Amino acid sequence: MKFIFFMLLLILSFPVLANKRGVGITLGNPTGLNGKYWLDDKRAIDASLGVSMGVHSDFSMHSDYLFHRFDAFYFNEVHPLDLYFGLGGRMEFADDIEIGIRLPVGLVHSFKEENAELFFETAPIIEILTKKGLELHLLFGARYYFN
Prior knowledge:
By secondary structure, the chain is mainly beta.
């Protein structure tokens, strides 16, 4: 059963990874690989595969539909930080499959000349299957964008 859910989520995430628009890593919860596909200049879809860091190290995957607000904040009055927020789903493969609703909010600093970005994200997760409750994920990440 876990294998069927894993394959379904992987297939749904495949356009993000196959397009190679943006690929990177995340450190935190989860730690792993990340991909992002821009739908237009303000909306994107991202997906991550990794290991969830907590009491147990379980395989985790998520995907989010994101909205972006560019130049929302400035660091040292020079470096623009973009704000993003969205809605998504998370699946974790522990003893049982755990499914939750993600509400990610994050900040991004883009390096346009290098086709790269650094980001920080926090995502409350409302667990709806197997275990019920609330989790909070924090992560840092970096992505490289292919032309």
